[in-house]
C-alpha cells in the first residue's frame, strides 16, 4: 500500500503537466492570432484586402475561431456528436453573411474601402447570394439558407411546424378565399353604384361628345396654324372650351361653331350632363330599424309550445324569424302517439304484483302519426289568447319549408325605410334585370322584397282608410323616379282627391299635369287608349312584338318610353261615370302590356261594384291592406286574411305566379324624402330639341275618334224639346233602338248641353228649349 501511493502521485503529476502544456499551446495560438489580427488591422493593404473580400463577416468567422479554441481548451469533443446542430449553425452563419452582403450603406468607409461600392459582406458575400449574376436571385438563396439552417439545427421542431401548417392549410385558404370574396363584393357594390350614377349609354355619349369637342378644337388649331400662323391666344381658347355652348358660341370662330352644331344634331335627344344623372341615394333617409331582443322571442316561443301542449298537440318551435311588424315562429309538428297498457307477468305466467298487491303495468307505444296541420290552425284564437295578442295569422305551410308559420304581432313595430329596401341585394338583382323594379317592403321574416312591374303587368291596391295605400303609391313613384330618366319612363297621375299626389307635380316625368277632375280623367284614359293603338301601329311597321324589341330595333331613331298610369282612388271615378271608366280600364289592362303601358290602381272601397269581376280578371297582381271584413278580403284576394292585418303598411301581396299571398310590411317614404327627390328632378329638367315632345304628342291625341252623327239624333232632340226629362229607356221605346245606341245618343245630348244628369240611375233633366231650325 505504501509503495502504491507514490506511483499514484506521479501519475497525477504527469497528467496535470500534460494538461498544462496543452493549455499553454492553446494560449500561444490565441496570442499569435490576436497579434496577427492587430497587424492586419493596422496594415492598410491587409485590412483593405480583408474587408473587400469578406467584409464584416470577419466578425462571424472570428466567433467560429473562438468557439473552436474553446473546444480545444475544454476538451469538449463530445459535443461534436450533434453534428446536425453544428452544420445548421454553419448554414445560418452563411445566411447572416448573405444578409450583410445585401446592405450597401452610404458614407461608411474603413481605410480605403468605401461601402457604397462594396457591400458589408464583401465581394465573396456577393458571390454567395448571387449578386454577380450567378445562380438564383439573392432573395431565394437567403430563404433557402435560413430554411435549411433551421431544419438542420432543429429537425423535430421543423417537422412539427410542417405538420401543423399542413393540418391548418385549409384555414389559411379559407381566410384567403373570404378576403378575396369580400374584396370582390365591395368591388361589385362600387361598380353597381358607379353605373347607377353614370349609366353606360350616357357615359359613352359624354365620352363621344368630349372626343368631338377635342377634335373640333384640334381641327381649329391646325386650320388657324396653316392659314395665319400660331394662335395668338391659346390659353383663352382652352378656357373657352370649358364653357357651355351657349356662352362660348359668340366667342369662337364660325368653323368651330358649325362643327359643334353638327355634332349636337347627330346625337338625338342630347342631354345636359346634370340631366343624365340619377338622384343620389343620399336623398333618402337612413334610419336604424328597431329589432326585438332574443329573450322576448324565446319567451313567446315557450308560450306557444306550452299552449299547444296544453291542448294535446305535440310541436316545437324550430325557427324564429323576426320582422318589422310581426315575428314568424316556425312550428314543426310532432307526433300523435297511441299507447297501450300491458300487465307484466313472471316466468310462470302469473300476474306480477307490487308490494300493495296491485298488478304491475307498463305503458308501450303501439303507433305514431304526424300531427295534422288542421289541429294547429284550429287553435288560432287559443294561441292569440295565450300570447295576449289581438290576432295572429297562421301560414300552413310556409312556402319552401316543412313548417307551420305562426305570425305574432310585435310589441313595437318598426318602419321599413325605402332606402333599406333599395340597398338590399334582392332589389339590386331585380334592378339589374328590369328598369321598372319596385321596392315593396320586407317580409314577415325581415327579408327585403322587390317586384318587377313589367312582369305584373298591372297592380291593384285596396284597403280601408288609413291602412297605407297612399304611402305605398308614394313609395312606388319615388322608387321609379330614383332609377329612371324622363326619356325612359313617363307617368300619368290621376288624383281625384286632389291632395295625395300633389308632391310630384312639376317633375319632368309627367306626361301631363296631375289630373284631378273626373271628366279630364276620363279624357286622359281615352288618350292612353289611343296612344296604345298608335304604339301597336308603330310595332307593326317596325316588325316587332313589344316595346323592348322596338327599342332594340336598328330601324328606330328615338326609343319609346314606358308609361305608367296611376289612379289613386278608383271608387270616385266609378261613382261618377262607371260606364266609361270600367271599359277603358279593362281595355287597357287587356292590351297594353306589350306596349309598355302599365296600370296601378288604388281604392279604399273594395266592394263588388268598384272592384268588378272584369277588373279583377285583368289585374292578376294585387295588394290588400287592412280591411274590416273577410268579405272585402275575398273581394280583393279571393281568399281571407286581410281582415287580420295590423294596418299602417301591413299588407298581403298576391303575385301572378303564386298560389297564396305573401305578408309584407310596406316601404315608407316621408314627405321630406319625396320633396327632395321631386326637387332634384325639378332642378335637373330634361333638355329637348323642341320642348317636351312626348307630352305634346300625348296632349294632341284626341280623346275619342270622330264619328258620323247618328241620323236619329235630330229625332232625339225633338223628343227632348217635348219632354222635361229624358232617359235611355225612353229613347229605346220611342225610337225602337237598342240600349247601346240609345246610350250613345244620351252621351251626345249631354255633351251638346241639351240634357243634364244629376244621378246615374235617374232620368236626365232637359236644361233648355231649342228653336226648330236648330233641330231640322
For the report, how would you describe the main beta sheet? 10 strands, mixed
Radius of gyration: 47 Å
Rough outline: flat
Termini, distance in Å? 175 Å
Beta-strand percent range:
5-15%
Question: What structural category arises from helix and sheet content?
Answer: alpha+beta
Number of helical regions: 29
Which consecutive residue ranges, at least 5 long each, have pLDDT under 50? 1-12, 222-276, 687-691, 771-776
Number of strands: 21
Mean pLDDT value: 76
Approximate helicity band: 40-55%
Word description of this protein:
By secondary structure, the chain is of the alpha+beta class. Helices cover 50% and strands 14% of the residues. It contains 29 helices and 21 strands. The strands form five sheets. Strands 9, 10, 11, 12, 13, 14, 15, 16, 17 and 18 form a ten-stranded mixed β-sheet that branches. The chain has a four-stranded antiparallel β-sheet with strand order 3-4-8-7. A three-stranded antiparallel β-sheet has the order 19-21-20. Helix 21 links the parallel strand 14 and strand 15. Helix 4 (83-102) packs across helix 5 and helix 18 runs parallel beside helix 24 (671-683). The longest helix has 39 residues, at 4-42. Mean pLDDT is 76; it is low at 1-12, 222-276, 687-691 and 771-776.
Secondary structure elements and pairings:
Layout: H1 4-42, H2 44-53, H3 57-74, H4 83-102, E1 109-110, E2 113-114, H5 122-129, H6 138-153, H7 155-167, H8 169-197, H9 200-228, H10 234-241, H11 245-248, H12 254-266, H13 294-310, E3 315-322, E4 326-333, E5 335-343, E6 361-370, H14 373-377, H15 380-386, E7 393-395, E8 404-409, E9 416-417, H16 418-422, H17 425-433, E10 437-443, E11 448-452, E12 459-462, H18 469-483, E13 489-494, H19 518-542, H20 547-552, E14 562-567, H21 570-591, E15 597-603, H22 613-618, E16 621-624, H23 630-637, E17 650-654, E18 662-668, H24 671-683, H25 693-700, H26 713-722, E19 725-726, H27 728-735, H28 739-751, E20 755-756, E21 764-766, H29 772-775
Parallel strand pairs: 9-18, 12-15, 12-16, 13-14, 14-15
Antiparallel strand pairs: 1-2, 3-4, 4-8, 5-6, 7-8, 10-11, 10-18, 16-17, 17-18, 19-21, 20-21
Helix pairs in contact: 1-2, 2-5, 4-5, 4-6, 6-7, 9-12, 18-24, 19-21, 27-28
Amino acid at each position: 500500500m505504501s509503495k502504491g501511493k507514490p506511483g499514484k502521485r506521479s501519475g497525477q503529476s504527469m497528467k496535470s503537466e500534460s494538461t498544462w502544456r496543452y493549455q499553454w499551446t492553446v494560449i500561444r495560438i490565441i496570442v499569435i492570432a490576436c497579434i496577427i489580427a492587430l497587424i492586419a488591422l493596422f496594415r492598410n493593404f491587409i485590412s483593405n484586402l480583408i474587408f473587400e473580400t469578406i467584409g464584416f463577416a470577419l466578425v462571424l468567422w472570428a466567433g467560429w475561431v473562438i468557439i473552436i479554441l474553446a473546444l480545444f481548451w475544454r476538451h469538449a469533443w463530445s459535443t461534436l456528436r450533434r453534428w446536425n446542430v453544428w452544420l445548421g449553425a454553419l448554414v445560418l452563419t452563411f445566411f447572416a453573411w448573405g444578409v450583410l452582403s445585401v446592405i450597401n450603406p452610404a458614407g461608411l468607409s474603413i481605410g480605403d474601402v468605401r461601402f457604397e461600392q462594396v457591400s458589408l459582406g464583401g465581394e465573396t458575400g456577393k458571390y454567395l447570394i448571387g449578386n454577380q449574376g450567378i445562380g438564383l436571385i439573392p432573395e431565394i438563396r437567403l430563404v433557402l439558407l435560413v430554411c435549411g439552417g433551421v431544419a438542420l439545427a432543429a429537425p423535430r421542431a421543423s417537422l412539427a411546424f410542417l405538420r401543423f401548417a399542413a393540418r391548418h392549410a385549409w384555414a389559411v385558404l379559407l381566410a384567403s378565399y373570404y378576403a378575396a370574396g369580400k374584396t370582390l363584393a365591395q368591388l361589385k357594390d362600387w361598380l353597381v353604384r358607379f353605373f347607377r350614377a353614370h349609366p353606360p349609354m350616357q357615359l359613352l355619349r359624354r365620352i363621344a361628345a368630349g372626343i368631338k369637342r377635342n377634335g373640333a378644337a384640334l381641327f381649329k388649331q391646325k386650320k388657324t396654324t396653316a392659314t395665319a400662323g400660331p394662335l395668338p391666344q391659346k390659353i383663352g381658347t382652352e378656357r373657352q372650351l370649358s364653357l357651355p355652348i351657349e356662352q362660348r358660341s359668340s366667342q369662337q370662330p364660325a368653323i368651330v361653331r358649325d362643327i359643334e352644331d353638327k355634332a349636337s344634331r347627330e346625337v338625338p335627344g342630347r342631354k345636359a350632363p346634370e340631366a343624365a344623372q340619377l338622384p343620389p341615394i343620399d336623398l333618402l333617409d337612413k334610419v336604424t330599424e328597431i329589432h326585438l331582443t332574443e329573450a322576448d322571442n324565446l319567451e313567446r316561443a315557450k308560450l306557444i309550445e306550452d299552449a299547444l301542449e296544453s291542448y294535446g298537440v305535440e310541436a316545437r318551435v324550430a325557427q324564429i324569424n323576426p320582422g318589422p311588424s310581426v315575428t314568424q315562429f316556425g312550428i314543426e309538428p310532432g307526433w300523435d302517439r297511441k299507447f297501450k297498457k300491458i300487465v307484466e307477468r313472471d316466468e310462470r305466467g302469473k300476474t306480477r304484483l307490487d308490494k300493495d298487491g296491485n298488478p304491475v303495468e307498463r305503458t308501450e307505444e303501439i303507433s305514431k302519426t304526424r300531427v295534422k296541420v288542421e289541429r294547429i290552425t284550429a287553435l288560432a284564437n287559443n294561441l292569440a289568447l295565450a300570447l295576449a295578442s289581438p290576432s295572429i295569422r297562421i301560414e300552413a305551410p310556409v312556402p319552401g319549408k316543412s313548417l307551420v308559420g305562426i305570425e305574432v304581432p310585435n310589441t313595437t313595430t318598426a318602419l321599413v325605410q325605402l332606402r333599406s329596401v333599395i340597398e338590399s341585394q334582392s332589389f339590386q338583382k331585380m334592378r339589374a334585370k328590369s328598369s321598372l323594379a319596385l321596392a315593396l317592403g320586407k317580409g314577415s321574416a325581415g327579408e327585403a322584397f322587390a317586384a318587377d312591374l313589367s312582369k305584373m303587368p298591372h297592380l291593384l291596391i285596396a284597403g280601408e282608410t288609413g291602412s297605407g295605400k297612399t304611402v305605398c303609391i308614394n313609395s312606388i313613384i319615388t322608387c321609379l323616379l330614383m332609377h329612371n330618366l324622363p326619356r325612359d319612363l313617363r307617368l300619368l297621375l290621376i288624383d281625384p282627391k286632389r291632395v295625395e299626389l300633389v308632391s310630384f307635380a312639376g317633375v319632368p316625368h309627367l306626361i301631363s299635369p296631375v289630373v284631378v277632375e273626373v271628366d279630364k280623367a276620363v279624357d286622359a284614359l281615352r288618350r292612353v287608349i289611343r296612344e296604345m293603338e298608335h304604339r301597336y301601329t308603330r310595332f307593326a311597321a317596325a316588325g316587332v312584338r313589344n316595346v323592348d324589341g322596338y327599342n332594340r330595333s336598328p330601324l328606330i331613331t328615338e326609343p319609346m318610353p314606358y308609361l305608367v298610369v296611376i289612379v289613386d282612388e278608383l271608387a270616385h271615378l266609378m261613382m261618377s261615370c262607371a260606364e266609361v271608366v270600367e271599359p277603358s280600364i279593362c281595355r287597357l289592362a287587356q292590351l297594353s302590356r306589350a306596349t309598355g303601358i302599365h296600370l296601378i290602381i288604388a281604392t279604399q272601397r273594395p266592394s263588388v261594384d268598384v272592384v268588378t269581376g272584369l277588373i279583377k280578371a285583368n289585374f292578376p297582381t294585387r295588394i290588400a291592406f287592412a280591411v274590416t271584413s273577410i268579405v272585402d278580403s275575398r273581394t280583393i284576394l279571393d281568399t281571407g286574411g286581410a281582415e287580420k292585418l295590423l294596418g299602417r303598411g301591413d299588407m298581403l301581396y298576391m303575385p301572378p305566379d303564386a298560389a297564396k299571398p305573401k305578408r309584407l310590411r310596406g316601404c315608407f317614404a316621408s314627405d321630406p324624402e319625396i320633396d327632395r327627390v321631386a326637387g332634384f328632378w325639378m332642378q335637373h329638367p330634361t333638355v329637348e330639341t323642341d320642348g317636351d315632345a312626348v307630352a305634346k304628342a300625348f296632349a294632341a291625341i284626341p280623346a275619342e275618334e270622330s264619328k258620323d252623327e247618328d241620323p236619329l239624333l235630330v229625332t232625339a232632340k225633338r223628343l227632348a224639346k217635348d219632354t222635361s226629362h229624358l232617359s235611355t229607356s225612353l229613347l229605346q221605346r220611342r225610337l225602337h233602338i237598342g240600349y247601346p245606341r240609345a246610350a250613345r245618343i244620351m252621351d251626345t245630348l249631354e255633351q251638346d248641353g241639351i240634357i243634364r244628369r244629376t244621378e246615374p240611375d235617374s232620368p236626365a233633366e232637359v236644361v233648355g228649349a231649342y228653336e226648330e231650325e236648330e233641330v231640322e
